[in-house]
Amino acid sequence: MRNRWQADFVAQDAVEALIYQARCVGEEPALVLWGGGNNSAKTTELDFDGTPVQAMRIKGSGGNMLAMQRRDYPAVRLAPLWALFEREAMSDEEMVRYVRHTLLDPDAPRPSIETLLHAFIPAPAVLHTHADAILMLTNTRGREATVRACFGDEVLVVPYLRPGFQLSKLVGAAVRANPDARGLVLMNHGLVTWGETPKEAYDRHIELVTEAEAFVAQRVFPAAGLPSTAASAAQRRALAVRIAPILRGLLSREQRVVLRFDDSEDVLAFMARPDAAALLQVGAATPDHMLHTKRAALWAPLPLDEPLDDEAIRARLRAHIDAYEAECRRRFAQHYDSALLSADAAAQVSNLPRVIFVPGVGMWTSGRDMRAATIAADIAHHTIAIMQAAEALGGYASLSDAEAFHAEYWPLELYKLTLAPPERELARRVALVTGAGHGIGKAIALRLAAEGAHVVVTDIDEAAARAVAEQIVQQHGMGRALALRLDVTDEASVDAAFEQAVLAYGGLDIVVSNAGIARAAAIVDLSLEDWQRSLAVNATGHFLVSRAALRLMRRQGIGGSLVFNATKNVTAPGKEFGAYSAAKAAEAQLCRIVAIEGGEHGIRANMVNPDAVFSTQLWSPELRRQRAQAQGIPEDQIEDYYAKRNLLRVRVSAEDVAEAVFWLASDRSAKTTGAMIPVDGGVREAFPR
Ligand code: ZN
Q: Among 165, 245, 462, 602, which residue's CB has the most CB atoms within a 10 Å radius?
C-alpha cells in the first residue's frame, strides 16, 4: 500500500495533522469505507476558563475520513477519561454520557464511539481502520495463527469484543504492557497503530497493512481467468432490466428503496464460485459494515435456463426474501435483549436485505437513496474480496451469531442513523421527466429533486439534460440525477431510456410526460409534414412514454403516478393552432385511458393544462410573432396580452406548472386520477368540464 503522506507536509496544529491523516487514509478504500475508522491526537488545550488542560482531539462519530473538517474533531478532557481505566465495567449509555461530560465544547459533535480506546492508549497519536488486508487475516478459521504467521509477535492481538468499555480496557492494558509493539490487531474488526505524531501512527499503519497484503498475495492466487458465465453482457443486462423492478417492488414492502445494479467482473467471478452462497452466509467482515449491508447478503438464484415470466420471477424472489426476513426474525427472537436496546431503537433495523446476489445476473444493493445503495455496494465489493482471500488462508470466518446480532443491534451504531437529515416528501422515489432540459420540464425536474426524488432527466438535447442533472447532483448529492437522451417519437429511444433508468435506480415511481412542440399555421396553410410532426411528438410521444411507464410500473407492483403536460388548448383551442391542439387533445384522451387502465394497479394519471408560459422553448420568437399576428396585437405586447386575458391577470411561470405537477406526482393527490388541472391564471372558456 502506498504511503500517501507527503514529506513536505507541515501541520500547523494537531487538528490539521489529523485532518491530513484522515484524508490520506480515506483516499484508500482498502483501509476504510465511508464512515469507518477513526483517529486522535492528545494535546494541551485551553479549557473554557482559560486554564490549560490535557485533552484529546478525536474524530466525531460517523464522519467520513475523506471529508473531515476542523469541527469534526471535538476535544475531550483526558484526566476524567483516564480515571475510567480503573473501573471494572460501564454500560454503553453510561459511557456515552460520561464522555459527553468531558467535551471542552458542550455543543461539539458526539465523539467517536471508540473514544475510550484512543484515550487508554498512552501514545500521543492513535489511528484505527478496518483495513481489508488485516480482515483477510483475522476473518479466518485459524485467525490468531494466521495473524501470528504474518506478523510474528511484533503486533498485539485482542480477541473480538464489541466496541465499548471492555474492549477499550483490553486494548489499553495490552498497549500499556507492550508500548513498543508495532500495532494491535482487533480480531474480526481492524487495526490500531500509535506513535509520537499522527505521521508516525500513519507510517506504522501503512507498513503493517503492506506486510499483510504481501502475506496474502503470496498465499492467495487469483482464480485462473474469469469463469465462463452462461449469459453475455447484453443478455445479463436484459435479464436485469426485467428482474430489477420486480425486486424493487418486493423490497419496498416497508418503505420504498432505490436499487443499484452492479455486474462488475469481481461480482460475476465471485458468484460463479460454488461456495459463494455459503461464504455470504458466514457474515460481515467487520461490525460497522452491518449498518449498511446487514449481517449477510441475500443469495437469490433464479432458474435462468427455464422460460420465466414476470410472475414466476416474482414468486421466486418473494420466496427468497420471505426466507431472509424469517431468518432475521428468528435471530431477533433468539438474541434480542430489551435491557440492551429499546424496542423503538430496534425497530430502526429492517429485516429486508441490503445486498442481493442473483447468480449469473449481478448484484443489487438497496438504500433509501443512491448514496446509501452505493455505500452498501462499495462495502460488498470489499467484503467479497476479503471472503475469498480468507477462504484461501484457511477458511472465511466471521462473528458468532450472537456477536453479530449484538453488533448489528448496537445502540451506539444505530445512533449514526439518526444523524441523517429527515426525509423529504419524495424521498425514496424515482421520477423520469421528458423534455427536462429546458423550460417547464427543467422546472419540474428541479422541483421534484428539491422534494427528495431521484430524477432521470431526459431530453432530445442531451447536453441540456446533462446540465440539469449536474445541477441537481450539485444541490442534492451523489446519484440523485441521471441524464439521458430521449427522443419521444422513437420507440427504441423511449424503451432504451426506461431500461437505463431501471438499471440505474431499479424502477420508477413518477413519470412526467412533458416533451412537446408547437407549430402555428392555419389549416389551409398547414403542411402535412408539420401536422405529422406535431402528432409524432404531442400525441405518439406521450403514448410511447406512458406505455413504457405502465409496463414498468405494473411489473414493479407498487403503483405509480403519471403526469401529462397538456395545454389550455385542449379545452379551448385557438385558431391557427390546429396541429398542436388536435395532437394535444389526443394526449388528454390518452391520459384518461391510462387512468382507467392503470387504476386497478394503483397507477394514477393526471394532466396539467398550462397556458402562456413564456419561459419555454415552445415559445420560440417565431411562435411569438405568429401568435401576436393571430391575436392582432404587436409582438412585444404578447406576454401582457396573455396576462390580461386570464381572470387573475397574472403571468404563468414554469415554476407554477411545476408546483401543480409536484402535487399530482406526490401522495398529496393519492385519491385523484384522470383529472385535469389548469395552470393558466383562470381562462373562463378553458374551464374543464
Ligand atoms: Zn472500528
A: 245
